[in-house]
Design goal:
Length: about 325
């Protein structure tokens, strides 16, 4: 999961929604994701694939199988190089994993971070890292906390939350947690228990079962995988009216939960658009028309009463979409 940015440049270009292309050449792009365990990265994949087709470039995709797999991802970077990639789009499994060896792994191939921050490679220290796409995950957590703080202001009565942010040492869970905690400081929201864990449905189910058995909770708040599991877990226990759900990011199942009023709130960082922007950023550089170093969609907040179609199209892949690992450039 996810990128933490100083929002120095927050750009959402409507102009970027039309193809840059045709690309000056049938460029070869190589994209690597931390995993495809949830529909978040599936939606990023959809955006990249559609934008690659639109711009007539070749795209090869690898997924690293999870955030612990640093060495596997390094091997995938080497595979991108061996394929003759003109640019690498990297959703890193660890923001500091390449602090010392990104240049050695990639040579002169330009690297563009997507979704997850690549801390070690800001210019001018690493001129081979030439761009990044993502949002400030502090703000994702803050917006979820703000939603609850407004519902439960100070002196309205203590309200207890089980917090399930995801893996403790990877992705954007720490800035999400800080943002959430900052937002609820002056409210009656109490985080009574925190459950860290990888974005595996089985692991999250175990954590949720523990939370429901051990704590008196008014809300479960956390990442999309946790909230997806919580929807079915609460239904099986007939606890839908006792424990309410808030997600810190959007997925297809969270969207369905919003539609059915099982989930009260979710921000979206527009994953499909992020995938598109990453392809555009790489092509822009290769075409010698570089885009700004940082591109960040506007975070939107969704509730059962507010589900605008244009935001959803920028956020979620079609229901029938399956992961695509190769797009051929037209001959």
């Amino acid at each position: 999961m996810k990128l933490t940015f100083n929002p120095i440049i927050i750009l959402l270009f409507s102009i970027l929604l039309s193809p840059l292309a045709n690309a000056n050449e049938p460029w070869k792009l190589c994209a690597i994701y931390p995993h495809l365990k949830d529909s978040y990265w599936l939606s990023v994949n959809y955006g990249m694939v559609e934008e690659a087709k639109l711009n007539n470039v070749e795209l090869t995709v690898y997924e690293s199988g999870g955030y612990p797999n640093v060495e596997r991802q390094k091997e995938q970077i080497k595979q991108c190089v061996s394929l003759g990639a003109d640019a690498i789009i990297l959703g890193t499994v660890d923001p500091v994993a390449y602090q010392n060896d990104l240049k050695a792994l990639t040579g002169n191939i330009p690297v563009f971070a997507t979704v997850n921050q690549l801390i070690s490679s800001y210019p001018p220290n690493a001129p081979y890292h030439l761009g990044e796409v993502g949002v400030d995950w502090y703000q994702m957590g803050f917006k979820a906390g703000q939603f609850l703080a407004e519902k439960h202001p100070k002196d309205s009565g203590l309200t207890y939350v089980g917090w399930l942010p995801g893996p403790k040492t990877r992705g954007g869970t720490k800035p999400v947690t800080k943002g959430f905690n900052d937002a609820i400081k002056e409210s009656d929201i109490i985080v009574s228990a925190t459950y860290w864990g990888d974005n595996s449905k089985e692991l999250q189910r175990n954590l949720i079962q523990d939370a429901l058995q051990s704590e008196k909770l008014d809300y479960l708040v956390g990442g999309a995988v946790a909230i997806e599991v919580a929807i079915s877990e609460l239904a099986s226990r007939k606890m839908q009216n006792q424990v309410k759900l808030v997600s810190t990011y959007l997925s297809h199942a969270v969207y369905r939960g919003l539609l059915r009023k099982r989930v009260l709130f979710s921000p979206t960082d527009k994953m499909v658009l992020q995938g598109r922007l990453s392809i555009q950023q790489a092509i822009g550089y290769l075409n010698k028309s570089p885009l700004p170093f940082r591109l960040s969609p506007t975070i939107e907040v969704l509730t059962p009463q507010y589900l605008p179609k244009n935001v959803l199209l920028d956020s979620l892949s079609p229901a029938e979409y399956r992961p695509t690992f190769f797009v051929a450039a037209p001959q």
